[in-house]
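Entry 14. Ran structure prediction on the chain below.
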Amino acid sequence: MNWGKGIAIVIAVYCVGILFLVYKTMGVDFELVSEDYYAKELAYQDQIDKMKNVKALGQDVEIEVLSGIVELRFPVELAEGPISGELLFFRPSDKSLDRSMPLELDGSGIMRISTESMKPGIFNLQIEWQANGIALYSEKSISLK
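Output, structure tokens:
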């Protein structure tokens, strides 16, 4: 074999390899974390202010993951007043597993959520809430089993 044939074979193998990689990457399914990420990025300062409000309270929502239940305990100082808001179980790996619900606390400022119907995995628990006219935001990563 001479040098010309060897170089031609190397170039052909390289081209076939590149075409194979292009073919494989065209079949990869990818999702954005959020469809409207640009608008959310512009409003992120509001979220930072809400997190600062939580730090000013000195106490955050306590989140406990039990067998089949996630328990949220809101600060006792705020439990006497009305607390409203929304809770989002955000699954970064699969948007179809996200679950949103309004806050519904019992008389002692506790909310229990059944996780029996949810698939196991890592969720970011995002709580956007209002208490005594103050807007607040809390977030914690939890693992459901």
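Helices lie at 3-26, 37-42, 44-57, 76-79. Will compare against last week's run tomorrow.
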